Prior knowledge:
It contains 16 helices and 18 strands. By secondary structure, the chain is α/β, with parallel strands linked by helices. It has three domains: about 5-145, Methylthiotransferase, N-terminal domain (Rossmann fold), CATH 3.40.50; about 160-395, Alpha-Beta Horseshoe (pyruvate-formate lyase- activating enzyme), CATH 3.80.30.20; about 405-480, CATH 2.40.50.140. A five-stranded parallel β-sheet has the order 2-1-3-4-5, sandwiched between helices. Strand 12, helix 14 (about 335-350) and strand 13 form a beta-alpha-beta unit. The radius of gyration is 23 Å and the shape is globular. The two termini are about 30 Å apart. It binds iron/sulfur cluster (SF4). The site of iron/sulfur cluster has 10 residues, from helix 8.
Amino acid sequence: MSFLETGLPSVAFQTLGCKLNQCETETIAAAFIKSGFAITDDPRDAWLFVVNTCSVTSKAEQKGRGTIRAALKQNPLCPVIVTGCYAEVDRAGLEALDAGNGEGRRLFVIPGTQKSRILDMPTMLAAEGMESRAALRDALARICRVIPGGSKRPSGESAAFRFDAATPVLRSRAFLKIQDGCNNSCTYCLVRIARGPAQALPEETVLERLCEAESAGAAEAVLTGVNIGQWSGAAGRGLAELIETLVSGTRELRIRLSSLEPDIFTEKFFAVLQNTRILPHFHISVQSGSVEILKRMGRFYEPEAVLDAIRRLREIKDDPFVACDMIVGFPGETERHFSETYNFCESAGFAQIHVFPFSRRRGTAAWDYKPRVPEREAEKRVNILKNYAVLSRKRYVEKWVGRETGGICMSLPVEAAATAGAVNVLTDNYIRVSARLPDDSNLFPQKGRRINCIISAPVNNDRVNDGTTSLIDAYGKILI
Ligand code: SF4
């Protein structure tokens, strides 16, 4: 919504990367709304633009630079706050994007581990300078000089958990940050460097926030972190115990798990997953189907063990949506290794394969690894696996045609739904459905509401739906 429409200065957001970044942006947006700002989707309307960056691949960084440059160009009066993992690992490089525009500083880079500082800015900005864009920019420059850095609260508590998106403002589901950082040392990973060692939100606070989300009307909450399997509580309690607490401490809210490492699949974990409020959607960070490549990646499990875990998941849940991340073109990967990965994906029958070309990250062990896979060869392998991913997703969606499932009403506002006669639904098993309303009904479900639907036909998508696009997988009908 623009200043002309609301009379309020507006903030635009762009989030790159993972669900954790989305959760943190949600919290920042809520802080701005609370201090009297409006949220706009249009950067040209914005008085302030916030970019939450990602450093998982060089491509993600390239996208981040492109977003920042576009924001600086599209709206010359608008300051840009940049944060996230890229801001953590290359602050100076990002600050250099602001050089030489002659209008005073417009780019404010806040390293990822100090991202929580941004949560204090809305109240300070509202107090200091909202009468004009120039006033807001000057106030921001002053505030950035005075807000103390560091990743600790004055109480010594980690500031990482000031992010609480129990009541979503941008999205239709609650996001709960339960964990940050990682203690593993995968040889290609910059995330652990950008986010630091593993830390966990205390169990009672996680439950408190989930109850808050449920009381605020959320029908689903996504548990996020860098490696949620490394969530740890008192007396050796782990993610399985936490989920038990969350299920018994809430009434009917559904819980969706974000990305899981293969080492999480213990008997205890499988037992907890039996609860029907744990949604049948599991995204496993597998990375390769080759034992040798996994070892070079510093990942210590066997592909066969992952296949066993997937078999168990299919015993526990009715045809769950099982997805994975795969890195292709890792240094030393031969044709044989790639075939092992491809065959592994075939055996696993994934509903979604998130294919990443290997990306050399400075500061990681794999930066110096040889032999490198020639770019053309790596690209060829990426395309082969991506094409297979399209097929896998289609097959999974086709299996659900004619079947009923629960889900969340996503994005479409009522008006658009009224004209389209349909709403976008994200089903429990992670299928994106454009669901028509029953002919005799004019009851439009609200965003975030839980509904039941029947899947009637797949959409013929020939592009990879890696979950980051809003591609629709299927058509369906809402069951009232
Ligand atoms: S598990 Fe590995 S890839 Fe994932 S965040 Fe930790 S170090 Fe990085």
